[in-house]
Structure formats: structure tokens, C-alpha cells
Amino acid sequence: MKNKKILPKIFIPIAILFIVVTISFGSFYTYWNTASPDQTCASCHEINSAVRSFSQSSHREMHCKECHGTALSNGFHSMKEKAMMVVNHVSDEKAEDPRMNEAQLLEVMTNCKRCHAKEFANWKSGGHSASYKNIFLDETHNKTEQLNFDCLRCHGMFFEGTTPELVGPISTKGPWTMKDPQKGDQPTIPCMACHAIHTDGKPVIRPDYAKPSSVFYTRNNSNSKVSFYDRHEKVHVLSAMLPKLQLILGDKTVIVSDDDRMRNCVQCHAPNGWHEAGTSDDRTPRGVHLGLSCLACHEPHSNDARNSCTKCHPAISNCKLDVTKMNTTYADSKSPNNIHWVSCTDCHKDDLRIKFIMDVRTIKKLPKGIKLKS
Fold first, then answer.
1. How far apart are CA 142 and CA 138, in angstroms?
2. Is 95 inside a domain boundary?
3. Cα 215 to the chain's mean position, in Å?
4. Torsion of CA 205, 208, 209, 214, to 10 degrees
5. Is residue 173 domain-resident?
6. What is this structure's pTM?
């Protein structure tokens, strides 16, 4: 009888304490996820710089949790991460400029497709969605060129380790295996390779439909916000701030497009150290396409170029040629006439008229006696 009387006396204060803690935690959790970031996230000096840059970005009308989630959005994993933030905050080793690791970044990337579904789908269908095993376990490549430390500059720029820590052996013999099999299916070029989410920008706004001119003619042109993530410096560099490619072919300088987005492309699709056209991974347009930007033909997210020819060569044009069926790599990957630098003389080797036209950008007047047919 004595134990039966003691039990309720102990149970009541425990129940009251549990209710108070639950209400307190729930209230604080609700406040933290609904209040302005200035009163929550920005109050931590470690991420104050990130909050300031976010406040100037095109995403500034969104709440932090829409991309980064909440302490309970991913179960125990999220709770563990948020708890470690508190531990790091009160410990002696306080990071002044914390960055997301690769796993955290990929989690955030899954939220991109909620608003950018089309872009995400195009990226998924293109070459830039290649996984670690697609790149580092490719036998044809690995037998031709030995894996090295620079592979991660473009394929795995957010990976925290080195190439030997990712795949082995580092040789041209193989067989090659991933050190961590779980990384095999992870993308090597995620959205953040070319997009800094906190980049300065203006949110998209609707035009004034009462004034038709505002729908197009008075719309402000927005500068490209594409950027390249520098793996070594761990920062995004805006494409407009990247140097323009200086390219040579023999003793001549190759004309390169002024499209600053192309400066992003050539960070990975680059020539050799002497900047010789067509070497290494360089695909800078030459020949009949001299001066064109990569984006003139390639869709930015899918890299698809199948519909690009007809943009400049419609069937109703004067030439009346179906350029998609010409002997170039557009129609056949084994063609000797690479679409990136195909020249008129590749097909018209003995046509003197074409040789005159080839340098048409610098010719003021054709020599007397030379007549060109339409």
C-alpha cells in the first residue's frame, strides 16, 4: 500500500516536467523556424557573412529552412548535425566561415528541383550529371591517361579528400575500385559547381501588364550569375571575373567569344598549358564557327546541341542545305570534320573562291576578276 501511494507522487512532477519541456521545446522550435533569420540564424556570428550575402541574393525572399531544412526535417541525422553546430559553437575551435561539406551540399541540391524542376531534369539528362563511378571507373580513359590529383578540379570539386583517397589504384593497369562504394552514384558536378546560391541578384518580378512596353522593351537586362567553384580556394568566382581565354593556332591568335558564361566552360574544357587550340579538352569554336560562344549551340543545363544548327541554318535560307546531314561530327561522331572547328576548305579543298572567303572578316574588297555566285 505504501508503494502505491508513493508512485503517483513521483509520477506527477515527472509528467509536469515532461509537459513543460515539450511545450518549451515546441515553442522555441516553432519560433526558430518561422522568425526572421536576422533574429535566428544571423545571431550566430559564424554564419553572419552567409546571411548578409543571402540577403542580397535572388533567393532572399525564401526562408533558410526551405533549402537547409530544419533540425527535424531529416530525422536523427538532422538533429545530430544541428547538435554538432552547438558543440562547435561553444568549443575552442570556432569556425569563422563554416562551409557545407559535400554530403550536406548534395542534400541541399535536392531542394533545388522544387523550384527549378526543368533545369534539374535537363541537368539529369546531360553529361554534367555524371557520377563518380562514371568518371573514375572508366576503363578506356584510365588505361589511356593515369588518374591524378587534378581530376577533382572538375570532377568532384567538393570532395574533401584526394584522388588516391577516392579511387585506386593510381595506375593505368587497374582494376579500379571506389574506396567508398557509396560515393559511386553521387554526382561529380552538382548544381553548385556553376551556381553560387548566395550570389547577389534580384528576385524575378512580374512586369506591369497595363504597360505592354514593360513586358519586354523596358525590362532590365540581368547579368549572368554563373560562377566557377575553385576547389583549392573553396570560393565561387563569378564568370565575369574570370579571365578571357587566350588561344593560339600556330602563329595566329584565335578569336574567342566575349560571352562571359563561356569563361566558365573553359575552366574545365581547357587547352594545354601553352593555350594551343584543339589540345587537351579545348572545344573552342574555330573555322566556320569562329567567335561563337559555347552557349550559342549548347543548352546550358542539358548540353544538348541537336537543335542548334537550324537556329542559324534554316531550310529556307539562301544556301538551302541541310547542314545536319553534312559530313561533320554533328551527324557522325567518327567524322574527320569536327563540328567545333570544321572549315570550308575541309570540304572544298580545291575551291579558290572558298579560300578567299575564309578570311572574310578581314577582307575589305575581293581582287578584280573574282566573282562569287549566290
1. 6
2. no
3. 29
4. -100
5. yes
6. 0.77
Of 69, 63, 72, nearest to 37 by C-alpha is 63
Structure confidence by residue, pLDDT tens digits, 181-205: 999 999 999 999 999 888 887 777 7
The C-alpha cell that represents 102 in the structure block? 559535400
Which amino acid is present at 87? V
Q: Which domain holds residue 186?
A: 117-193
Structural domain contains residue 336: no
| Number of domains into which the chain is organized | 1
Secondary structure of residue 248 in the 3-state scheme: strand
Cell numbers for 252, please give them. 595566329
> What is the share, in percent, of the chain residues with pLDDT greater than 90?
43
pLDDT in tens, 300-345: 899 999 888 888 888 777 767 788 888 899 989 899 999 999 988 7
Residue-wise burial string across 5-29, b where 16 or more C-beta atoms lie within 10 A, e elsewhere: eeeeeeeeeeeeeeeeeeeeeeeee
Query: What secondary structure letter does DSSP report for 319?
Result: T
Residue 185: partners with Cβ closer than 8 Å, 6 or more residues away: 131, 132, 133
Domain contains 179: yes
Question: Is residue 24 over pLDDT 80?
Answer: no
Hey, CA dihedral for 33, 39, 41, 44, is it positive or negative? negative
d(CA 68, CA 109): 9
Collapsed DSSP state (helix, strand, coil) of residue 252: strand
